[in-house]
Amino acid sequence: MTEIVSGQDLIDAGMQQGKWFARALVAANGVLEQGGSHEDAIEAARGFAPPPALPLHAGGALPLHLNIQAENQHEAANVEAVTRSMTELMRTPVVRAGAIMPDACPAGSPGTIPVGGVAVSEGIHPGMHSADICCSMAISVFPGVAPAALLDAVHAVTHFGPGGRQRGQQFRPSKEVFARFEANPLLRDLTSAAIEHFGTQGDGNHFAYVGTLKSSGETALVTHHGSRAPGARLYNKGMKIAEGVRRTLSPETLPQNAWIPADTREGDEYWEALQVIREWTKGNHMLIHDLAAEKLSAKVSDRFWNEHNFVFRRSDGLFYHGKGATPAFDDWADDATDLTLIPLNMAEPVLIVRGKNAENGLGFSPHGAGRNFSRTQHRRMQAGRSDAEIFAEETKGIDARFFSGVTDISELPSAYKNATSMRRQIEHFGLAEIVDEVLPYGCIMAGDWEANAPWRKKKERREAEARRQ
Fold it and tell me: What three-state secondary structure class fits 418?
């Protein structure tokens, strides 16, 4: 009787049963057919076994830099929450260091990287840049243009809210960017979204802000948004790839901290896809700025941009994930200038800063003012006052607009951390040097577009009918 190696033989040899057994048995029995011994066959099968699971780091084993101070009870609770979450995240086997910025706030279940978190790793973690890949800032200076005229022009050409632009109002990305979409396996089915969402800004805390430079008085446009649907869909694909790796290499790692190993086919494709999404997002900013300039027949004298939700690979070969953190190290990108942008809230200046590559910040600075409360908590705290009253009080002296026509009080200044405190902590921790400011004139945000959404109106009608019965 011809000897064969069975699955039970592999189990008896101490191997953990799995899908890999099928390939292992083919190889093992191939050895026997060629006259090899049973022992040789078992060793051939063992070569197909997945590597042993990577253990989690012990809690507190890695350096975590805390660049944040609590100035009241609410901030103390916030600092405790983000520190606890980052400490858990840093148990991930391939993570090497972490930092928390002054604007940090929780962004999910414990162990999830907070907004204002920085994580250094051997791998690429889609969950650490989130669905809003390459959320970023851009500024253009419009000499000789009145702020009111610029704000009106931007309002006329931009697009906030869900979805993309309607047919007949769409713009196509550059040929170079579009060709890179088509060439990348993770992006080639996203070309329609790349067109539909080009020239859009989304919702939430994204904005178009007009003000004047403190240094010169010239009018400037500052925009804030990410990669819209193309980035969100790439993120979903990345998370699926990373989850497969996590289940094999480190089942104990939290799903949100799964990673794609570097220098693998999947890692290379995902890294390239991130760079394409970055170029698309930069083009998205510049399109809105150029449309405003065209509408005004105006010229732009200066512009620059920076992402604050992205992954950077530095000379040490490690991946630096900034989740709501602004790069502050030299040459962070081929198109980097020495200046970056940090917004605070719609009624405060946008800070123009020069990064200091602080070791305690792992080469990053804050990306904004952050929150001490969730949107829901903030709304509860405003109970007893109408949205109109809150809006009038908090936007006094600026031209604040909501694209949907409905105020979102969770985006008004009181929803964010104290701007003065943010500036003080940037200086205290040596994270950046403030070199200029864009003083506020007005701001456009999406607003509460869901208030009049068809599904909500339908639900309200059903509930009204139920009450009448």
Answer: coil
Q: How confident is the model at residue 449 (pLDDT cuts 50, 70, 90)?
A: confident
343 annotated to bind ligand: yes
CB 438 within 8 A of CB 350: yes
pLDDT of residue 209: 98
Length of the chain equals 469
- What residues are paired with 69 via a beta bridge? none
Parallel/antiparallel/unpaired status of strands 432-445 and 399-402: parallel
In sequence order, the β-bridge partners of residue 5 are none
What DSSP line would sit under 116-142, residue for residue?
EEEEEESEE-GGGT-SSTT-EEEEEEE
**Cα–Cα dist 13/44, whole Å:** 12
Asked whether 444 and 207 are in contact (CB, 8 A), the reply is: yes
Residue 77 annotated as binding? no
Which tens digit of pLDDT belongs to each residue from 110-160?
999 999 999 999 999 999 999 999 999 999 999 999 999 999 999 999 999
Let me know how many helices (H) and strands (E) the chain has, helices first. Answer: 13, 17
Please identify which of the residues 225, 289, 321, 367 carries the catalytic annotation: 367
Q: Is 345 annotated as a binding residue?
A: yes
Tokens of 236: 């979903």
H or E element at residue 321: strand 319-323
Which CATH superfamily hosts domain 128-455? tRNA-splicing ligase RtcB (3.90.1860.10)
pLDDT given at position 372: 82
SS3 (DSSP) at 351: strand
Residue 148 CA to residue 221 CA, distance in Å, equals 11
d(CA 393, CA 321): 38
Mean pLDDT within 388-413: 95
Model confidence band, residue 375 (pLDDT cutoffs 50, 70, 90): confident
What is the residue extent of each domain of the chain?
7-46, 128-455
Sorting pLDDT into bands at 50, 70 and 90, what band is 73?
confident
Q: Which residues pair with 124 in a beta bridge?
A: 260
- pLDDT tens for 175-213 read 999 999 999 999 999 999 999 999 999 999 999 999 999
Sign of the torsion formed by the C-alpha atoms of 330, 334, 336 and 342: negative
Q: Is 367 known to be catalytic?
A: yes
Structure tokens at 403: 């694209």
Q: Is 125 annotated as a binding residue?
A: no
pTM: 0.89
Answer whether 68's CB lies under 8 Å from 104's CB. yes
In 10 A of CB 297, how many CB atoms?
7
Strand pairing of 302-307 and 364-366? unpaired
Q: Which residues in 82-122 belong to E strands, given as ranges?
A: 95-105, 115-121
Would you say 373 and 118 are in contact if contact means Cβ atoms under 8 Å apart?
Answer: no
